[in-house]
Amino acid sequence: MSTAWVVGDGENSVDSAKVAKQYRKARHTGLLSLAGCGLHAIPDGAYDLISTCEDGEIQLEMFSTSELSKVDFSYNDLVEAGEDYRFARFMSCTHMRISNNNLTTLVLPDALRELQVLDVSSNSLTAELDGLDRLHALRELNVARNRLTSLGPSLPTGLELLKFSDNLVQALPELAACHRLSELCGEHNALHALPLPLPASLSVVELSYNELGRSGGPPLDLSNCRELRVLQLGSNELALCPRLPFDAPNLTRVVLSSNKLRALDGSDGGGELDLSNSPLVSELFLDHNAISLLPESLVLPLTSLKALDISHNALTDVPHILGYLAGLRRLALEGNPIRPAALNKSLYTPEIEGASINVDRLKEVLRGRGRPPAAARGRGYVPSDDQRRLSTEPQAYALFGGCLLYTSDAADEEDS
Q: For the whole model, what pTM was predicted?
Protein backbone atom coordinates (compact mmCIF):
# COMPACT_ATOMS: atom_id res chain seq x y z
CA MET A 1 0.00 0.00 0.00
CA SER A 2 1.44 3.40 -0.97
CA THR A 3 1.94 6.04 1.66
CA ALA A 4 1.37 8.78 -0.98
CA TRP A 5 3.90 11.21 0.38
CA VAL A 6 7.21 12.65 -0.74
CA VAL A 7 10.43 12.93 1.22
CA GLY A 8 13.50 15.07 0.57
CA ASP A 9 16.38 14.14 -1.66
CA GLY A 10 19.97 13.26 -0.88
CA GLU A 11 21.23 13.86 2.62
CA ASN A 12 17.87 15.23 3.76
CA SER A 13 15.86 12.15 2.72
CA VAL A 14 14.23 9.94 5.32
CA ASP A 15 13.82 6.23 4.61
CA SER A 16 10.53 4.47 5.22
CA ALA A 17 11.96 2.44 8.10
CA LYS A 18 12.76 5.62 10.01
CA VAL A 19 9.30 7.04 9.41
CA ALA A 20 7.75 3.74 10.45
CA LYS A 21 9.75 3.98 13.66
CA GLN A 22 8.06 7.30 14.40
CA TYR A 23 4.67 5.70 13.84
CA ARG A 24 5.49 2.88 16.25
CA LYS A 25 6.78 5.32 18.82
CA ALA A 26 3.59 7.35 18.51
CA ARG A 27 1.52 4.37 19.65
CA HIS A 28 3.47 4.19 22.89
CA THR A 29 4.05 7.88 23.60
CA GLY A 30 1.06 9.61 22.02
CA LEU A 31 3.51 11.91 20.19
CA LEU A 32 3.90 11.77 16.42
CA SER A 33 6.95 13.75 15.30
CA LEU A 34 7.62 13.99 11.57
CA ALA A 35 9.57 17.23 11.84
CA GLY A 36 12.20 17.83 9.19
CA CYS A 37 11.19 14.92 6.95
CA GLY A 38 10.94 16.90 3.71
CA LEU A 39 7.17 16.40 3.53
CA HIS A 40 5.18 18.18 0.82
CA ALA A 41 1.87 16.90 2.21
CA ILE A 42 0.71 15.25 5.40
CA PRO A 43 1.30 11.54 4.71
CA ASP A 44 -1.41 8.91 4.68
CA GLY A 45 0.50 7.18 7.45
CA ALA A 46 -0.11 10.13 9.76
CA TYR A 47 -3.84 9.71 9.23
CA ASP A 48 -4.01 5.94 9.13
CA LEU A 49 -0.94 5.11 11.20
CA ILE A 50 0.66 2.62 8.75
CA SER A 51 3.55 0.79 10.35
CA THR A 52 5.97 -2.00 9.51
CA CYS A 53 5.73 -5.04 11.76
CA GLU A 54 8.77 -6.94 12.98
CA ASP A 55 8.16 -9.66 10.35
CA GLY A 56 8.40 -7.05 7.59
CA GLU A 57 4.75 -7.20 6.63
CA ILE A 58 2.72 -4.03 6.22
CA GLN A 59 -0.03 -3.64 8.75
CA LEU A 60 -2.77 -1.02 8.63
CA GLU A 61 -4.09 0.28 11.93
CA MET A 62 -6.79 2.91 11.80
CA PHE A 63 -6.10 6.13 13.60
CA SER A 64 -6.84 5.85 17.30
CA THR A 65 -8.31 9.02 18.76
CA SER A 66 -7.53 7.86 22.28
CA GLU A 67 -3.78 7.55 21.73
CA LEU A 68 -2.43 10.48 19.72
CA SER A 69 -2.24 13.72 21.71
CA LYS A 70 0.60 15.62 20.02
CA VAL A 71 1.63 15.97 16.36
CA ASP A 72 4.65 17.80 14.97
CA PHE A 73 4.99 18.50 11.23
CA SER A 74 7.41 21.43 11.60
CA TYR A 75 10.38 22.10 9.31
CA ASN A 76 8.89 20.56 6.18
CA ASP A 77 7.56 21.92 2.88
CA LEU A 78 3.82 21.73 3.52
CA VAL A 79 1.80 24.29 1.57
CA GLU A 80 -1.63 23.50 3.01
CA ALA A 81 -3.15 21.77 6.00
CA GLY A 82 -6.69 21.03 7.05
CA GLU A 83 -8.32 20.86 3.64
CA ASP A 84 -8.12 17.05 3.61
CA TYR A 85 -11.23 15.71 5.38
CA ARG A 86 -9.00 13.27 7.27
CA PHE A 87 -7.46 16.19 9.17
CA ALA A 88 -10.45 15.90 11.51
CA ARG A 89 -9.04 12.58 12.68
CA PHE A 90 -6.62 14.53 14.86
CA MET A 91 -9.60 15.26 17.09
CA SER A 92 -7.83 13.95 20.21
CA CYS A 93 -4.74 16.15 19.75
CA THR A 94 -4.01 18.74 22.39
CA HIS A 95 -0.79 20.04 20.79
CA MET A 96 -0.21 20.66 17.08
CA ARG A 97 2.93 22.14 15.59
CA ILE A 98 3.17 22.97 11.87
CA SER A 99 5.78 25.74 12.08
CA ASN A 100 8.52 26.49 9.56
CA ASN A 101 6.70 25.25 6.48
CA ASN A 102 5.27 27.04 3.44
CA LEU A 103 1.63 27.08 4.49
CA THR A 104 -0.49 29.65 2.69
CA THR A 105 -3.82 28.42 4.10
CA LEU A 106 -4.90 26.51 7.20
CA VAL A 107 -8.39 25.16 7.81
CA LEU A 108 -9.24 24.16 11.37
CA PRO A 109 -12.19 21.74 11.51
CA ASP A 110 -14.66 21.82 14.37
CA ALA A 111 -13.54 18.33 15.35
CA LEU A 112 -10.35 19.71 16.95
CA ARG A 113 -12.22 20.25 20.19
CA GLU A 114 -9.32 19.17 22.40
CA LEU A 115 -6.63 21.35 20.81
CA GLN A 116 -4.89 23.51 23.41
CA VAL A 117 -1.65 24.56 21.71
CA LEU A 118 -1.34 25.53 18.03
CA ASP A 119 1.97 26.67 16.52
CA VAL A 120 1.91 27.68 12.85
CA SER A 121 4.70 30.25 13.06
CA SER A 122 7.19 30.89 10.24
CA ASN A 123 4.94 30.08 7.31
CA SER A 124 3.44 32.13 4.47
CA LEU A 125 -0.10 32.48 5.79
CA THR A 126 -1.97 35.43 4.34
CA ALA A 127 -5.59 34.58 5.12
CA GLU A 128 -7.00 34.47 8.65
CA LEU A 129 -7.26 30.99 10.13
CA ASP A 130 -10.60 29.48 9.17
CA GLY A 131 -12.35 28.04 12.23
CA LEU A 132 -10.00 29.54 14.81
CA ASP A 133 -12.78 31.05 16.91
CA ARG A 134 -14.41 27.62 17.29
CA LEU A 135 -11.40 26.06 19.04
CA HIS A 136 -12.81 26.65 22.50
CA ALA A 137 -10.09 24.64 24.30
CA LEU A 138 -7.22 26.61 22.70
CA ARG A 139 -4.83 28.11 25.27
CA GLU A 140 -1.76 29.06 23.20
CA LEU A 141 -1.67 30.38 19.64
CA ASN A 142 1.53 31.21 17.77
CA VAL A 143 1.14 32.69 14.28
CA ALA A 144 4.34 34.76 14.35
CA ARG A 145 6.39 35.34 11.19
CA ASN A 146 3.68 35.03 8.57
CA ARG A 147 1.97 37.55 6.28
CA LEU A 148 -1.30 37.94 8.11
CA THR A 149 -3.16 41.24 7.96
CA SER A 150 -5.89 40.06 10.35
CA LEU A 151 -6.41 37.46 13.06
CA GLY A 152 -10.09 37.15 12.25
CA PRO A 153 -13.27 38.61 13.72
CA SER A 154 -12.86 36.90 17.09
CA LEU A 155 -10.51 34.70 19.08
CA PRO A 156 -11.10 31.75 21.44
CA THR A 157 -12.01 33.19 24.80
CA GLY A 158 -9.80 30.72 26.66
CA LEU A 159 -6.55 32.00 25.15
CA GLU A 160 -3.71 32.52 27.60
CA LEU A 161 -0.89 33.29 25.16
CA LEU A 162 -1.13 35.03 21.78
CA LYS A 163 1.96 35.47 19.59
CA PHE A 164 1.60 37.24 16.24
CA SER A 165 4.88 39.13 15.86
CA ASP A 166 6.33 39.85 12.42
CA ASN A 167 3.10 40.02 10.45
CA LEU A 168 1.10 42.84 8.83
CA VAL A 169 -1.74 43.00 11.34
CA GLN A 170 -3.38 46.44 11.46
CA ALA A 171 -6.09 45.78 14.04
CA LEU A 172 -6.93 43.20 16.67
CA PRO A 173 -10.34 41.67 17.40
CA GLU A 174 -11.95 42.36 20.74
CA LEU A 175 -9.93 40.89 23.60
CA ALA A 176 -12.11 41.81 26.59
CA ALA A 177 -13.73 38.35 26.66
CA CYS A 178 -10.33 36.63 26.83
CA HIS A 179 -10.28 36.67 30.62
CA ARG A 180 -7.25 34.36 30.85
CA LEU A 181 -5.03 36.12 28.33
CA SER A 182 -1.65 36.61 30.00
CA GLU A 183 0.79 37.33 27.15
CA LEU A 184 0.12 39.54 24.14
CA CYS A 185 3.17 39.48 21.85
CA GLY A 186 2.77 41.31 18.55
CA GLU A 187 5.95 43.22 17.75
CA HIS A 188 6.71 44.24 14.18
CA ASN A 189 3.17 44.73 12.86
CA ALA A 190 1.12 47.73 11.72
CA LEU A 191 -1.20 48.25 14.70
CA HIS A 192 -2.61 51.77 14.96
CA ALA A 193 -4.63 51.18 18.13
CA LEU A 194 -5.68 48.48 20.59
CA PRO A 195 -9.20 47.24 21.32
CA LEU A 196 -10.29 48.52 24.71
CA PRO A 197 -10.71 47.46 27.37
CA LEU A 198 -7.79 45.06 27.49
CA PRO A 199 -8.07 41.96 29.67
CA ALA A 200 -7.15 42.56 33.30
CA SER A 201 -5.22 39.28 33.23
CA LEU A 202 -2.45 40.60 30.95
CA SER A 203 1.03 40.27 32.44
CA VAL A 204 3.19 40.66 29.31
CA VAL A 205 2.46 43.22 26.59
CA GLU A 206 5.09 43.28 23.84
CA LEU A 207 3.96 45.56 21.02
CA SER A 208 7.11 47.40 19.98
CA TYR A 209 7.65 48.31 16.33
CA ASN A 210 4.05 49.10 15.47
CA GLU A 211 2.24 52.36 14.69
CA LEU A 212 0.46 52.87 18.00
CA GLY A 213 -0.41 56.53 18.51
CA ARG A 214 -0.26 57.36 14.83
CA SER A 215 -3.90 58.36 14.71
CA GLY A 216 -3.63 60.52 17.84
CA GLY A 217 -6.39 60.39 20.40
CA PRO A 218 -6.22 59.81 24.17
CA PRO A 219 -3.38 57.96 25.89
CA LEU A 220 -3.22 54.20 25.51
CA ASP A 221 -5.27 52.85 28.40
CA LEU A 222 -3.73 49.95 30.33
CA SER A 223 -5.18 51.06 33.65
CA ASN A 224 -7.04 47.82 34.36
CA CYS A 225 -4.02 45.54 33.74
CA ARG A 226 -3.01 45.13 37.38
CA GLU A 227 -1.13 41.89 36.67
CA LEU A 228 1.22 43.67 34.27
CA ARG A 229 4.82 42.49 34.56
CA VAL A 230 6.45 43.50 31.26
CA LEU A 231 5.41 46.44 29.06
CA GLN A 232 7.26 46.97 25.79
CA LEU A 233 5.91 49.73 23.54
CA GLY A 234 9.14 50.96 21.96
CA SER A 235 9.39 52.20 18.37
CA ASN A 236 5.79 53.35 18.02
CA GLU A 237 4.37 56.84 17.55
CA LEU A 238 3.14 57.53 21.07
CA ALA A 239 3.03 61.24 21.89
CA LEU A 240 1.36 60.72 25.27
CA CYS A 241 2.42 58.42 28.09
CA PRO A 242 0.28 55.29 28.39
CA ARG A 243 -2.11 55.21 31.31
CA LEU A 244 -0.79 52.49 33.61
CA PRO A 245 -2.57 50.78 36.51
CA PHE A 246 -2.60 52.75 39.74
CA ASP A 247 -1.37 49.60 41.45
CA ALA A 248 0.86 47.24 39.40
CA PRO A 249 2.95 45.49 42.07
CA ASN A 250 4.48 42.95 39.64
CA LEU A 251 5.70 45.39 36.99
CA THR A 252 9.46 44.99 36.40
CA ARG A 253 10.21 46.27 32.88
CA VAL A 254 8.92 49.33 31.00
CA VAL A 255 10.12 50.15 27.48
CA LEU A 256 8.91 53.37 25.82
CA SER A 257 11.97 54.00 23.66
CA SER A 258 11.81 55.65 20.23
CA ASN A 259 8.41 57.31 20.48
CA LYS A 260 7.32 60.97 20.42
CA LEU A 261 7.02 61.56 24.16
CA ARG A 262 7.68 65.11 25.34
CA ALA A 263 6.49 65.10 28.94
CA LEU A 264 6.34 62.45 31.67
CA ASP A 265 4.43 64.53 34.22
CA GLY A 266 1.26 65.13 32.24
CA SER A 267 2.11 68.77 31.53
CA ASP A 268 1.42 68.19 27.83
CA GLY A 269 -2.22 67.40 28.54
CA GLY A 270 -1.64 63.67 28.47
CA GLY A 271 -1.29 61.17 31.24
CA GLU A 272 1.48 61.11 33.80
CA LEU A 273 3.88 58.17 33.79
CA ASP A 274 3.09 56.99 37.31
CA LEU A 275 5.13 54.11 38.74
CA SER A 276 4.70 55.05 42.38
CA ASN A 277 2.96 51.76 43.20
CA SER A 278 5.29 49.57 41.14
CA PRO A 279 8.25 49.07 43.49
CA LEU A 280 9.69 46.14 41.50
CA VAL A 281 10.47 48.10 38.33
CA SER A 282 14.12 47.32 37.58
CA GLU A 283 14.38 48.47 33.95
CA LEU A 284 13.06 51.73 32.53
CA PHE A 285 13.84 52.70 28.93
CA LEU A 286 12.80 56.18 27.78
CA ASP A 287 15.54 56.85 25.22
CA HIS A 288 15.09 58.49 21.81
CA ASN A 289 12.13 60.71 22.64
CA ALA A 290 11.82 64.47 23.15
CA ILE A 291 11.61 64.48 26.96
CA SER A 292 12.79 67.71 28.55
CA LEU A 293 12.24 66.85 32.22
CA LEU A 294 12.80 63.70 34.27
CA PRO A 295 10.48 64.22 37.26
CA GLU A 296 11.88 63.43 40.67
CA SER A 297 8.49 62.01 41.60
CA LEU A 298 8.88 59.37 38.86
CA VAL A 299 12.23 57.94 39.97
CA LEU A 300 11.94 58.43 43.75
CA PRO A 301 9.79 55.30 44.38
CA LEU A 302 11.87 53.06 42.09
CA THR A 303 14.01 51.46 44.77
CA SER A 304 14.54 48.33 42.65
CA LEU A 305 15.76 50.22 39.59
CA LYS A 306 18.88 48.74 38.01
CA ALA A 307 18.87 50.25 34.52
CA LEU A 308 17.64 53.67 33.38
CA ASP A 309 18.11 54.77 29.78
CA ILE A 310 16.99 58.31 29.07
CA SER A 311 19.57 59.02 26.41
CA HIS A 312 18.87 61.05 23.27
CA ASN A 313 16.22 63.33 24.70
CA ALA A 314 16.09 67.05 25.55
CA LEU A 315 17.18 66.93 29.20
CA THR A 316 19.19 69.81 30.61
CA ASP A 317 19.34 68.32 34.09
CA VAL A 318 18.60 65.13 36.04
CA PRO A 319 17.26 64.78 39.59
CA HIS A 320 19.88 64.22 42.28
CA ILE A 321 17.68 61.47 43.76
CA LEU A 322 19.13 59.10 41.16
CA GLY A 323 22.35 59.13 43.17
CA TYR A 324 20.59 57.57 46.14
CA LEU A 325 19.15 54.55 44.28
CA ALA A 326 21.40 51.80 45.61
CA GLY A 327 20.69 49.25 42.88
CA LEU A 328 21.16 51.56 39.89
CA ARG A 329 23.99 50.13 37.77
CA ARG A 330 23.22 51.43 34.30
CA LEU A 331 22.46 55.08 33.67
CA ALA A 332 22.51 56.30 30.06
CA LEU A 333 22.36 60.07 29.55
CA GLU A 334 24.21 60.61 26.28
CA GLY A 335 22.62 62.68 23.57
CA ASN A 336 21.07 65.21 25.97
CA PRO A 337 21.94 68.93 26.18
CA ILE A 338 23.04 68.64 29.82
CA ARG A 339 24.08 72.12 31.04
CA PRO A 340 27.72 72.35 32.15
CA ALA A 341 26.66 73.42 35.64
CA ALA A 342 23.79 70.98 35.98
CA LEU A 343 25.78 68.35 37.88
CA ASN A 344 28.81 70.35 38.99
CA LYS A 345 30.27 73.72 38.06
CA SER A 346 33.24 72.09 36.35
CA LEU A 347 31.18 69.64 34.28
CA TYR A 348 31.01 70.11 30.57
CA THR A 349 29.49 68.10 27.74
CA PRO A 350 31.67 67.86 24.64
CA GLU A 351 30.31 65.80 21.77
CA ILE A 352 32.27 62.64 22.50
CA GLU A 353 30.57 59.27 22.27
CA GLY A 354 31.59 55.78 23.32
CA ALA A 355 33.24 56.56 26.64
CA SER A 356 32.78 54.01 29.40
CA ILE A 357 30.38 55.26 32.03
CA ASN A 358 31.37 55.32 35.67
CA VAL A 359 27.95 55.06 37.25
CA ASP A 360 29.21 55.05 40.82
CA ARG A 361 31.09 58.32 40.24
CA LEU A 362 28.08 59.85 38.55
CA LYS A 363 25.86 58.85 41.44
CA GLU A 364 28.36 60.37 43.86
CA VAL A 365 28.14 63.67 41.97
CA LEU A 366 24.36 63.53 42.09
CA ARG A 367 24.35 62.85 45.84
CA GLY A 368 26.58 65.84 46.26
CA ARG A 369 23.85 68.05 44.83
CA GLY A 370 21.18 67.43 47.42
CA ARG A 371 19.97 65.76 50.54
CA PRO A 372 18.73 62.15 50.60
CA PRO A 373 15.01 61.46 50.26
CA ALA A 374 12.96 61.33 53.43
CA ALA A 375 12.55 57.57 52.96
CA ALA A 376 16.30 56.97 52.56
CA ARG A 377 16.34 54.79 55.66
CA GLY A 378 14.29 52.21 53.81
CA ARG A 379 15.57 49.46 51.58
CA GLY A 380 16.74 50.39 48.11
CA TYR A 381 18.45 53.67 48.99
CA VAL A 382 22.07 54.42 49.76
CA PRO A 383 22.32 54.42 53.59
CA SER A 384 22.79 57.88 55.02
CA ASP A 385 26.02 56.92 56.78
CA ASP A 386 27.54 56.02 53.37
CA GLN A 387 26.67 59.31 51.72
CA ARG A 388 29.70 61.20 50.51
CA ARG A 389 29.91 64.72 49.25
CA LEU A 390 32.19 65.74 46.42
CA SER A 391 35.59 66.84 47.61
CA THR A 392 36.20 70.58 47.65
CA GLU A 393 39.74 70.02 46.39
CA PRO A 394 40.44 71.37 42.88
CA GLN A 395 39.13 68.59 40.67
CA ALA A 396 37.16 68.44 37.47
CA TYR A 397 34.61 65.91 36.31
CA ALA A 398 33.91 65.61 32.62
CA LEU A 399 30.63 64.26 31.23
CA PHE A 400 31.48 62.63 27.92
CA GLY A 401 28.32 61.67 26.11
CA GLY A 402 26.59 61.03 29.41
CA CYS A 403 29.63 59.29 30.94
CA LEU A 404 31.22 60.86 33.99
CA LEU A 405 35.01 60.60 34.02
CA TYR A 406 37.57 61.94 36.47
CA THR A 407 40.16 64.44 35.26
CA SER A 408 42.73 66.53 37.12
CA ASP A 409 43.28 70.26 36.94
CA ALA A 410 46.79 69.59 35.74
CA ALA A 411 45.54 67.64 32.78
CA ASP A 412 43.07 70.43 31.98
CA GLU A 413 45.84 73.00 32.10
CA GLU A 414 47.97 70.93 29.73
CA ASP A 415 45.07 70.66 27.29
CA SER A 416 44.56 74.41 27.42
A: 0.83
